[in-house]
Hints:
2 copies of one chain form a homodimer.
Chain A lengths: L1 H11 L5 H17 L7 H8 L5 H10 L8 H25 L3 E2 L2 E2 L1 H26 L4 H23 L8 H26 L8 H25 L2 H4 L5 H5 L4 H9 L1 H4 L9 H13 L2 H18 L7 H16 L3
Antiparallel strand pairs in A: 1-2
Helix pairs in contact in A: 1-16, 2-3, 2-4, 2-5, 3-6, 4-5, 4-8, 4-16, 5-6, 5-7, 5-8, 7-8, 8-9, 9-15, 12-15, 15-16
Amino acid sequence: MAVGASVEAVVEAGGSHIPPLMAALEQRLAALAAGHGDALARHGGETIAAGGKRLRPLAVFVVAGPTAPAGGPSLLRAAAAVELVHSATLVHDDVLDGADLRRGRPTVVAAAGRRMATATGDLLFSRAFAELAANGRPDEVRVLSGASTALARGELLQRADVFASDVAVERYILRCELKTARLFEAACRLGALESRGPARGQVAELGGFGRRIGLAFQLLDDVLDVSGPAQRTGKRRGADLLDGTVTLPLILARERDPALADLDLRSVATPAQAEAVCDSIAASGALEEARRRAVELVVEAKDDIPAALPAAQRSALRLIADGVVERYS
Amino acid sequence: MAVGASVEAVVEAGGSHIPPLMAALEQRLAALAAGHGDALARHGGETIAAGGKRLRPLAVFVVAGPTAPAGGPSLLRAAAAVELVHSATLVHDDVLDGADLRRGRPTVVAAAGRRMATATGDLLFSRAFAELAANGRPDEVRVLSGASTALARGELLQRADVFASDVAVERYILRCELKTARLFEAACRLGALESRGPARGQVAELGGFGRRIGLAFQLLDDVLDVSGPAQRTGKRRGADLLDGTVTLPLILARERDPALADLDLRSVATPAQAEAVCDSIAASGALEEARRRAVELVVEAKDDIPAALPAAQRSALRLIADGVVERYS
Lengths: 329, 329
């Protein structure tokens, strides 16, 4: 994955302090998984261990900057807490989607059932706050609880709008903010709060950077659901359509194609029908427009990187922003 | 419900500061429910508004004592946070049990589906930490996140032991500690941390008091599932048996009745079969033994009330402890 490559690019750009931090994060997450005293939290442990891109912890570390004490426990806890919240939402999402595979491994719900998976998600949420609380920084807990509240509100918003024919772009963007961007924003804010360097004075600015790349990330994820290819996403094209989730490509395509404007999403019942709708959306030019908006957000994010930061840190942040787009290009 | 009556008894025992606090709590919970900016968190709001006994916030207030500033925002936030965590677990429990009614109202899962209900539970969890984080007290966040982690671990433990024939009393007690007692303990600890009176120096002791009454509460709840009557619990006797949840009455009865010792819980498939097993458990004398252990815990809890507290506060705490037993007598 391009994001994997971009971690290395970040390191090359002057982030030689990053690899030991990422390694320490893995150790910390593994310890958290093992530290429940018995085999009960096995599923939570597996979810954490199964990895993923660790994009949010990477953002925490890069924002904190090279002057953060390497492997300092509070910085690590902040990064681990963000990843735990992310993992918790994935576990609950898989319960609700009845998903069998995640990151190429069986999901908790597939391995252990809905009840175990719901409790595992709750455990990961709770561990996230326990982890961050150990830092003794109420400002950090506020940042994470705000993001975690937003995540749940985003899910509620998505469900409220399911199969709706009149979702406005603004409402879609709000949902993406809540579901995705706020946790990226939180990652960057936590990095700034933990920084011993100039990032420390740039909490809001760096939060805005995170928010924009998070938004771009979600927009591109939604484009990918329509464009495929399936081998990239691990699921067939049009999964969102089958769920009744209205995303930007469809919203934009409806403005361009009267047949799509009249489409009742509830009539899209089979994967083949969903793929046909994907083709219509693609034919309307909506995917290019959605991608263009995402790239614009990334450009804005890069423009917003505070000038007060050292050059190496600024270029590492730019690479993180580019990594979001590269993942989908 | 007897617990409702015991609130009044607590007030009479010298807790004249309690009613305005309980009223302020309701206002705060209602504001939290309404404060999501739109109708999306409706279900979370309904869950909170549907009320319940508010036993945990009551414990927070009584432990904090009359010298806590009445309606002080930080004390209220602590009490609200505990109730929000409790509500979150109820919502998730209802999703997993597929329960239709809770406190006489349709559950979130019945009204809005599993997806909405799971997100609503996540929202309530997140709001709990957001609420408590506003106090700026890392020690308080640690107490709540520890309890919330324990809750999820308790649920995992329960699922790991489902239909098991060899659950030891110690393991059952551990599960009750995690699932129930730790949140009561957290309520009492938070009350002590918020206290401006002598309770402030008795955090561990008052936590122990909470833990014991929480444990007694769960033991008696499990007795009630076997003893009925159904009109009291709102569900048929033996619901735990049908779920495969092994509780103290069955564990004790198995030591007394060889037929029960040999019983494969998976063979208990109908409500009528479950009621027959309940009758066997009752006939073994296990219910009296389980009740006796619960009452013993309550006696120990009362003995543990610190002598340093004012007499009126001590007697209010004794009434809370008695309220747990009265609810089931």
